[in-house]
Amino acid sequence: ISNIHYGIWYAQNEAANIICDFNSNSIGTNDSRETCNAGIYLIGRGNYDAKTVDIADEGSNLYDVWNGIQVLNFKNSSSIHIRNNPSIVLRKADFAHYGILVTDCRNVMISDNTDIHSSSSNNKNGYGIFLNNVPHASITCNDISNIGTCVGFFGHCPNITNNAGILHKLCRVYSNNQTE
User: Fold this and answer.
1) Which of 26, 39, 43 is nearest to 91 (CA)?
2) 29: closest CA among 106, 72, 92, 110?
3) What is the pLDDT of residue 81?
4) pLDDT band at 31; cut points 50, 70, 90
5) Which candidate, 33, 62, 99, 109, has a CA 20 to 30 Å from the CA of 69?
6) Alpha carbon 80 to its chain's center
7) Given phi > 0 = left and psi -120 to 50 = alpha, else beta, which region is 29?
8) What percent of the chain is modeled with pLDDT above 70?
9) Cα–Cα distance measured from residue 56 to residue 167, given in angstroms and rounded to the nearest whole number
10) pLDDT (0 to 100) of residue 78
11) Exposure of 108 by Cβ count < 10 A (0-12 exposed, 13-18 middle, 19+ buried)?
12) Closest CA to 166 of 131, 133, 142, 139
């Protein structure tokens, strides 16, 4: 999928069980005049009691995008896995943009994404992984480089119960302009 504003857009439209896998996609731009706002954009409807929400994104290559993977508003999710994506390459922008952004979700596991980086140097507005109000999250073995902030947190992001914390074996994280 190339030269399109959103590569994949999934919106939950009712209080229903959700079981989705988004696997092995290649999404991005190959023309400097085009913009891809988000490679994969998934949005829920908020709080639904007793609903199953299992979402997995795996094996996608996202290139020259402003935002790689955005998952928003699945507040009662049973599991959200973002893993084994070989490449998420961000285009430089003058506004905040994200390799992986998760907002208002729970039970999120982000692991083994082997190359999250900016296509340009000095990309101070880029974030590799950013969690906003995400209780019960785990970030494990992701390679993030050449970006303003490797991993960022905002709002309510408590640890998984009986676990050592949100960050586990965060592999090879480095940046020219890294902040913590």
Assistant:
1) 39
2) 92
3) 92
4) confident
5) 33
6) 11
7) beta
8) 82
9) 20
10) 82
11) buried
12) 139
Residue corresponding to tokens 């586990």: 168
* Bridging pattern class, strands 53-58 and 79-83: parallel
pLDDT band at 100 (very low <50, low <70, confident <90, very high): very high
pLDDT on residue 178: 44
Beta bridge partners of 26: 61
The tokens 């709080």 sit on which residue?
47
CA distance 68 to 61: 9
- pLDDT of 119 > 70? The answer is yes
With beta carbons less than 8 A apart as the criterion, state whether 114 and 87 touch.
yes
The DSSP-derived string for 128-158 is EEEEES--SEEEES--EESSSEEEEEES--P
